[in-house]
Structure formats: C-alpha cells, structure tokens
Fold this sequence. Notes:
single chain; alpha/beta; Glutaredoxin; six-stranded mixed sheet; two-stranded antiparallel ribbon; 5 helices; 8 strands; 23% strand; Thioredoxin-like_sf; Thioredoxin_ResA/DsbE_sf; signal; TlpA family protein disulfide reductase
Amino acid sequence: MSANAWGARALLATVVVATALLAGCARDAAPQSTFVLLDGSKKTTADLQGKVTLVNFWATSCTTCVAEMPKMVSTYEKYKAKGYDHVAVAMAYDPPAYVVNYAQTRKLPFSVAIDNTGAVAQAWGDVKLTPTSYVVNKKGEIVKRYVGEPDFAELHQLIEKLLAES
C-alpha cells in the first residue's frame, strides 16, 4: 500500500472515530451532580429537567470569566422568562468568600454554586480550564460545550432553538 493510500485510510478512520465521538457527546446525559448554592440550598441535575440550562464553570481569578459575566447576566435576563436557567459553578480553588463577594457586588441573578470538593467539576468531565460552559437541553442532555468565552450570538441562537423544542 502506498504512503498516500495509507494516509488516506488513517485520515478516514480518524474522521469516522471523531464523528462517532462527537455524535455521542451531542446527546450525552448531563452527569448526576448536586450544586451547593451560596444560600446553602441545593440544586441537582434532575432539577434542570424541563429547562434549557447553561452550567458555567468559572473562578473569580479568571479574567475571561470576569469579562464574560456581564454577557452571561444579560443572556439570563433575556431568556429566563422563556424557560432558561443558568448555574455558575465556582471552582474548588476559588475562596468561598471571594465568590460570595463577587456574586453579591455584581448582583448575579442566577444560581451560584461553590464546588468546594471539586466533585462537580470532576463529574462534568474533570473540568480544569475556566471558563467551561455546558448547554443542557430540556431533556437533560448536553448539547454543546464551550471552553473559553462563548460566541454569544451563536449561544443565543442555540438557546432559542432549544427553547422552541418541546
């Protein structure tokens, strides 16, 4: 077999495997996890059912996270009445006092959780990079993952599409 034929087969195999993996990711169920909110209450993955939800892993020390947060707030405000929710999960290394101060001074309107053990980040694919966000549909399936700041126009289109689904 020539090097070109071997290379073409290897490329085809890679594309097939990648497509299969991505197809699986597109509809993976959100992992079962419990979010401990700043007020001490808890929200579980099951509580997200029936809503389109953005689960956003962030940290007060992450400049991109802080820069995107006003856009996260405006996205939440724009869609919350239509069945959209947002859970901002602060990373385990983020001091809880910093998270509380940030959420209060910025008047974050959505649920803010502190992942003090790292179990939530672990359950959601061992999240290490911030920001990392997951869009979860009404059925509780992950339909999109963003590492870094999302393209908000694209995110809004996806939210609108998912909100329109029954």
